[in-house]
Amino acid sequence: MSAGIEKYKPYLDAGTFESSGVNNEFTSRYHTFKICIDFLHPNLTDKKVLELGTTRSFVDGKYDGCNSNDVKYWNKDDCSKWDWSAGCFTLIFGQLPGIKLTTVDTQFSHINRCRYMTDSLNIKCGHVLADSVNFLKTTQDKYDLIYLDTGDMTPIEPTSQQQLSEVQIIHEYNILAPSGLLLIDDVLNKTPKEYGENSGWGKSKYSIPYLLDSGYEILYKGYQYILFLP
Fold first, then answer.
1. How far, CA to CA in Å, does 89 sit from each of 34, 123, 157?
2. 17-24, long-range: CB < 8 A, 24+ apart
3. How do strand 217-221 and strand 225-228 relate by DSSP bridges?
């Protein structure tokens, strides 16, 4: 199943290195995505995946049209310009057969752009316009994989507080399925450091310590972290 991600590896590598400023292959999103895909693979039927913070731009930040609503910037057949610095989680995991993907975002424009991209790729997923914490408090599902990518990299404090609230609800409401995985994006993003954030965990500076204190263990450390509850 992970073979399908191989075509995206050069872009995942380059996008991760751009966001982190560290040219280290083993920090790439490619590795963490592959681990999660392999985890889901044995029985993809009825696997539930939740993304908090949707894929929201037609092109990467280095191109004209980043975060524009103009669909002329989207080209489903030229993935080289997709928003790889943000990871394109929705577009990659949405193509996995047999999973139920739900993506949540607070911005109407983000949801609309994401829906346009997923529709063009024949990806079937739920697009939810909601605050992530409110969604987590009301969902009736348990998820095999939860991807945490809410918020911007600066200012970092509101994003860090939001992510802490997310993991607190995930843990306290028992939203992660047994043996499920938490995948946290942007842990090694360079932007918070450039603005004086020195925790080393960026927007996860509160969430990762909370999870570790709550008994979770780290499965993989890279640009993204993967955690699980034994």
1. 12, 12, 24
2. 18/62, 18/84, 18/85, 19/85, 19/86, 19/186, 19/188, 19/189, 19/190, 19/191, 19/223, 20/188, 20/189, 20/190, 20/223, 21/190, 22/188, 22/190, 22/223
3. antiparallel
Q: How far is Cα 95 from Cα 182, in angstroms, rounded to an integer?
A: 19
- For the chain, residues with pLDDT lower than 70 are 1-3, 43-44
pLDDT of residue 44: 62
CA separation for the pair 102, 50 (Å, rounded)? 5
pLDDT, tens digit (0-9, with 9 covering 90-100), for 15-51: 999 999 988 999 999 999 999 999 998 766 789 999 9
- For the record, the structure tokens of 113 come out as 């752009």
Please, is 90 exposed, middle or buried when counting C-beta atoms within 10 Å of its C-beta (0-12, 13-18, 19+)?
Answer: buried
SS3 content of the chain, % helix, strand, coil (to 5): 45, 20, 40
Model pTM above 0.85: yes
Residue 201: its pLDDT value, please? 87
What amino acid is encoded at 186 in this protein? D
Structure tokens at 186: 């942007």
